[in-house]
Amino acid sequence: MADIENQHAEPGGNAVEIAGLYKWFGTFNVLVDVNLTIKRGERVVVCGPSGSGKSTLIRCVNALEDYQRGKIFVNGMELSTNLKRIDEVRREVGMVFQQFNLFPHLTVMENCTLAPIHVRKMPKREADALAKKYLARVKIPEQADKYPGQLSGGQQQRVAIARALCMNPRIMMFDEPTSALDPEMVKEVLDTMVELANDGTTMVVVTHEMGFARQVADRIVFMDAGQIVEINTPQEFFSNPQHERTRLFLSQILK
Amino acid sequence: MTVTSAEDMVFVQRVPAKVLPPPVTQVGAIGWARTNLFSSIRSTVLTFFTAGVLVWIAVPIIQFLLIDAVWSAKDPTACLPREGHEVGACWAFIHERIGYFTYGSYPPAERWRVNLFFLLLAFGSGLMLWLDAPRRGLGAVYFFVVLPVVSYILLSGWPLIGLPRVETDLWGGMLVTIVVATVGIVVSLPIGILLALGRQSNMLAVRFLSITFIEFVRGVPLITVLFMASVMLPLFVPPEFSPDKLLRALVGMVIFAAAYQAEVVRAGLEGIPQGQIEAAKALGLRYWRLNSSIVLPQALRITIPNIVNSFIALFKDTSLVFFVGIFDFLKTIEVARLDPKWSGPNTSLTGYAFAAIVYFFCCYLMASYAESVERRLGRADRR
């Protein structure tokens, strides 16, 4: 299933290129010489213990965090402090958060159409149609007129996915999308993500869901203490991990 | 129980138990009184004590304001005490001077213009405060664009269309109080919002200016701000454009209220989770859109009670404009009560009682409105 060739992914080119990235929170070095290249159409799962810098890393990619050294390219564009460039990059990258972060004062529909209307300058009618399409795709078209507070956690997270998709991003990033969910709702969100992966979307997923990683990822990135310790295919990662730290991590989570 | 047989451990209901109406101690007036007034000896004592205090305070007030009051009289001497006859509030005095309290020295022939203004304003406020009103956008255009222009023309006059000019020196009474309060409220809120945003800005200069302004104005009494606006404003503009007295006071009021609004709004802004802002940024929303569509609607919603609270304070603070020579509602009462024609033992007391009732009525209306909005938002949160 995690087979790049048969997907209708865009050919060639890199979706994300991270080179020599360093970041400090105050005096604490949270990201240490991170280098990672993600191809178009690729699905990459980032895992590692809490505080290893996984979330910080993907938040750097769409400029929710700044960094002090190194370079990030998104679809060939170099990220800089230039606001215009940041806007361009953010339009390419969709983001799904652990806490959903839906806008509680707007309906599900309005959550989805806000950015297309105001950022893409899309006519409302068109944006509505787009939102309907993606809400159907995450299987909650009937909730369009409700407010986020009326939905379950799993439904909210699926709305958040639809909201991100409405901007037609080239890359989807997920920051622990199932960590805040009740156990019985994890599956519906993961199923949605698997479907997305099968459609050939470029995905970067920070998660502890190892089953998902095994099923969907082309590569798994393992981070510890702000550094990338190992990058490997799922088969190798789970059956034949190379780094000492990876083995320790896996032995603790796969009992 | 010492012996437990299998039958005692297991139970299956054969017949549903009967649902009974509540006992009389639970419902109705008796039930209410028992739970709220006489639930224990201590609460019973407190109930009687409170009732006693209420009677002790309320009886003389009712006696003075209603029972012994002189309601109408052609002749001010009716309000003077005679032998064997207690005299209470002199409503006849209020009745005769009500025009002055409402319009100040606005020429009587032109007072219909003020009445029309009151009507237009009441209509506009109604539209703004009615949250489910149809076409709220149009209502906003009326309130923020049409109303100020029409009101200005109506009240100041425009000889070209047959409305003689009425200098603001002649304005007074409730008219001035309402103009100052409304302008203060309506203009200070947007400025306060900008200041609150400025205070959190990433741009150091903007943040510095906002903080300086807010802290300076908040650290100074309103009267000082009014005097400064009154005395200093003319120094900054060429004498031929020197703003009139009322406008200067308005500027002072707005500056003062804006600083307080800024702090009220800031509290609301800080109540918005960081995740909301990050999600909006991640979608590509820029600063102004992010604030106008995501942050402010949520922040203002939770601050409505506090905003109204500061409106109430502002409404009462308008009485301070008399320090810079403007005859607001309270000042007109202050002037009229000293009128020798109505001199009597109860004239002043009646005037002040009237002022208190009017201020209380207005503030209570605002507070009730805030409470209803709060309840509505509480419901919305439970959605």
Percent range for β-strand residues of chain A: 15-25%
Which value, in Å, is the CA radius of gyration of chain A?
18 Å
What's the N-to-C terminus distance of chain A? 25 Å
Poorly predicted ranges of chain B (pLDDT <50, ≥5 residues)? none
Major beta sheet, strand line-up of chain A: 6-7-8-3-9-10
Can you give the helix content of chain A as a percent range?
25-40%
Order of helices and strands of chain B: HHHHHHHHHHHHHH
Q: Kindly report the average pLDDT value of chain B.
A: 87
What is the CA-atom radius of gyration of chain B, in angstroms?
29 Å
Count of DSSP E strands of chain B? Answer: 0
Principal-axis shape of chain A equals globular
The oligomerization state is heterodimer
Helicity of chain B, as a percent range: 55-70%
Order of helices and strands of chain A: EEEHEEHEHHHEHEHEEHH
Shape of chain B from CA axes? Answer: flat
Description:
The complex is a heterodimer of chains A (255) and B (383). Chain A has 255 residues and is α/β, with parallel strands linked by helices. Helix content of chain A is 37%, strand content 25%. Chain A has helices spanning 54-61, 83-92, 108-118, 124-137, 153-165, 183-198, 210-216, 234-239, 244-253, and strands spanning 14-25, 28-39, 43-47, 69-74, 77-78, 93-96, 171-175, 202-206, 219-224, 227-232. In chain A, the strands form 2 sheets. A 6-stranded mixed β-sheet of chain A has the order 6-7-8-3-9-10, sandwiched between helices. Chain A has a 4-stranded antiparallel β-sheet with strand order 2-1-4-5, with helices on one face. In chain A, strand 7, helix 6 (183-198) and strand 8 (202-206) form a beta-alpha-beta unit. In chain A, helix 4 (124-137) crosses helix 5 (153-165) and helix 5 (153-165) packs parallel to helix 6 (183-198). Chain A is globular and about 55 Å long. Chain B has a domain at 108-165. Chain B is an all-alpha fold and 383 residues long. The mean pLDDT of chain B is 87. Chain B contains 14 helices and no strands. Chain B is flat.
